[in-house]
Amino acid sequence: xxxxxxxxxxxxxxxxxxxxxxxxxxxxxxxxxxxxxxxxxxxxxxxxxxxxxxxxxxxxxxxxxxxxxxxxxxxxxxxxxxxxxxxxxxxxxxxxxxxxxxxxxxxxxxxxxxxxxxxxxxxxxxxxxxxxxxxxxx
Amino acid sequence: xxxxxxxxxxxxxxxxxxxxxxxxxxxxxxxxxxxxxxxxxxxxxxxxxxxxxxxxxxxxxxxxxxxxxxxxxxxxxxxxxxxxxxxxxxxxxxxxxxxxxxxxxxxxxxxxxxxxxxxxxxxxxxxxxxxxxxxxxx
Amino acid sequence: xxxxxxxxxxxxxxxxxxxxxxxxxxxxxxxxxxxxxxxxxxxxxxxxxxxxxxxxxxxxxxxxxxxxxxxxxxxxxxxxxxxxxxxxxxxxxxxxxxxxxxxxxxxxxxxxxxxxxxxxxxxxxxxxxxxxxxxxxx
Lengths: 138, 138, 138
Hints:
The structure is a homotrimer of 138-residue chains.
Chain A: E1 2-10, E2 15-18, H1 20-30, E3 35-41, E4 46-52, H2 56-69, H3 86-96, E5 99-105, E6 108-109, E7 115-121, E8 128-137
Antiparallel strand pairs in A: 1-8, 2-7, 3-5, 3-8, 4-7, 5-6
């Protein structure tokens, strides 16, 4: 059995957005018990990550280390058409990935206690992001 | 066909642990010939990687570059509740990923000659880690 | 339904190689409508990424940031048997991953408008690279 659904996530700025509940709903509505939930963001300047979901400083620290490793406006970059966050957004997305697969067990994503599923917007302006969810299993 | 199994890996310290044989066994016991083996670690401070499996200095070099990119005890971090390796462990896990999919071919993981599957413990103390293995195919 | 095919990609030097059309062909010939296309490179010194496919400076900038983060010939590395690009190639591959899953929708990879699938060769000399493609769905 394969079920596919596209969800839209509106972002406000460079930030992490918890989409765990959206994923839980899609799996539940499709009626899957066991299998895989594959997430895929159809963009090159936002990514999908698993992150600690209890302390918000984890995600602000994550933002700061990435800003250090791949600084906005770095003179290294030629691709600056859409501003100082343009090329860093592409690099951040490649380093943290646009595809993510999570097992489904007993009708739910088999996440650890402290794991949440986040969309990470790497552009500093709002965007409407498309995430394709493909479920397979039984 | 979908088969799911959870394996436990006891880690001793920050290090890489070869789990290739465990994966080979799970595929073999489930009787799969062709398909995908999806691995998922249910934690946010350890990750799953493919790495060169012949020369141990590859993995010690890997440890050192990561220590340079994301130093323990860096004053950048606010999330330090569990010690200087706490936040670096989260970042290392996100940069090297908690999900990994490997094709199954002729009843075995279709790894290249020099590829091994490793659990990378990013905390400096021992942990019991849960890895969910989901097999699908035929 | 599961279909598996191995494709060979000849690389010339350290560079990104667009393999999107190869993937489109494999899906089309196998006759899949909906599902997942899983790509897996059977090496530890080349990787598979999704990248912006319109402006080539994105990929040259990507090369330059990686050269800064993980410099060839860095005295940090012990694993230098095959030259100054040996260990950096392993690290780049781990940071950008050897496995990649893309949803199949309406018989094609469900990529965003600006997404291309690239093999990233991290060695400075030519190599013949094996990419296993596993399709499942219907």
